[in-house]
Amino acid sequence: MSLRALPFEDEDEQRRLSVFHLVGLAAGGVIGSGWMLGAGEAYDKAGSDAWLAWLFGGLLMLLIAGVMVELGTAAPKTGGLIFLPLQSSGALVATVMAAGLWLVYAINLASEAVAMTKGLSGWKVHGLLDPSDTLTTEGWCYALAFMAVISAVNLIAPRIFFRINSWLTVLKVVVPVLTVVLLIAAGFDDNGLRAGAHGPGKGAAAALTAVVGSGVIYAYVGFQGPLDFAGNVKRRPPGEAARLRRAVFGTIVGSMVLYIALQTVFTRYHDAAWSTANMGSSPYAHFAYAAGLFWLGVLLRINGVLSPMGAGLVFAHSLTREVAALSRAHLTHRGLQTARKASLNRRYDVYWLVLVVDCVIAGIALWAVGGSWKTLVAVTGVLTLVVYAVPGVALVSLRGHLPAHSDRRRDAHEVLARASFALIALILYGAGWGPLWRGMTALTVGCALLLCLPILAGWRPALGRIYDAKVHVTQFRDWRTSPAAQAALWLIGQLAVLMLVTLVLGDSPITLDHKVLGGFLAVVTALVCFEGLVRASKRHMLEIPPMLPTPGARGTARPAPTDPRTTTTPNGTTTAKTE
């Protein structure tokens, strides 16, 4: 059967991924630089209670994953993190989602490149970092080179890419597991680090702050990799849904246990002098050398470069599929999903132009934060939580269009969706004003570009020839009658109120009661806005019924849009008819 004979399945969705490949995507995205560089940041914020930050972050990810996996298995679609909110809530909400997701994945490229540079400095390559732990000119050159290498590897044939990534993930998991086991078993003599030299804990509130600000969320980001390729999962028994659940939940639970163990090792053997004496190197390599485990220290230093690179490979590869979905929906330049380039005299489905744009965005982000890994991680944490909040809205809104389940199961998923939306708001509030305003500023710039570039392209023919996307921002003119515009306003309003509450009650030198009040307001506002989003989304779907893939079926979708102003593309998205 030819590809053209499959009207509702993209060329991208012909490849079938096994559980091994899916775990390679999930664990490969999660096990990056966060576990090596985040432990010290978490310790600085929460002291010996830093392990609670990893526990809170892991439990939050499990809750969010429960919602995302349910949505991804009910309507499996490659690029679904953008496609499904588009179907449920319209182009404006999808644009906010797309801007956040694009920035998360692009900034990850920059942060992993910086982590690789910091890892390289552990090999006594001097001059890469200045005393403030940011990149020097030479460090910038290395970071840009690493970004280019990660992008270049994504140009190889996908079947080879998945094989390389899966086995690289095995190495990335084995190394930290060995680190935990051997460092706990080895102990330290009087010439090394001394157990028990850590400070007191700072409590659960400090650990909650560390979830976003110290890179905990950043370390867990990546579990959604299999959901980015939900349309590519093997369908034979045990089926798509089972494979996705095993990959996603197994990765989160396993990484949570591993991260807590690593933080426990760090806290027990932390030496306050290390943070300045060994800037840029892996703390666990330092511990291994102090314990006399020279070979483990070498392995950790190698992993200090390979582990961030592996995570960068996963994010760069996943981004190409999400941006392709964005492009097919005409929310960005349409050429981003058609401009493919052959490699080795064969045509591979490699979106080379997306990789180029990804590098440009990553370079701009790196310049904007002055080459600081800490700032990149904080911005990524905020943007990630905003992105993770939207699938819950899509799940509840699409309830009547998804495969039938028992009322108890559907009600449970609705409760999970609302709980995750409220908890995300609470975590963002707890992160504080600094990370929040930086993340929201980046999101605002991303949304402005996606919404306004089509208008500029219409005004300037020269720009229009190189940027072709549909104008959606004008929907705000009809906000009184347009459900899609109302849904976007509910989402934007929620984020604006959250920023205001954080500014006034979050970081100000006021009493604990005021801070608790701020958290209460953040949760209540989130729940109110969630209901407004769902109602507006349901009204939108009455005007334009969603096109959703059927689990386990080829070439089927349900139901077709009836709006006379739109037409349906072969991949199931709706676009405006030309006059």
TrEMBL record:
Q: Where does the record place Low complexity bias?
A: 553-579
Kindly report the protein's main subcellular placement as a broad class: membrane
| Name of the featured protein | APC family permease
State the annotated membrane topology for this chain: Multi-pass membrane protein
Q: Which UniProt keywords apply?
A: Membrane, Transmembrane, Transmembrane helix
Give compartment(s): Membrane
**Span list, region Disordered:** 545-579
Any single Pfam family the record assigns to this protein:
AA_permease_2
Name the residues that span the membrane.
20-38, 50-69, 81-107, 139-157, 169-188, 203-223, 244-262, 282-300, 350-370, 376-398, 419-436, 442-463, 484-504, 516-534
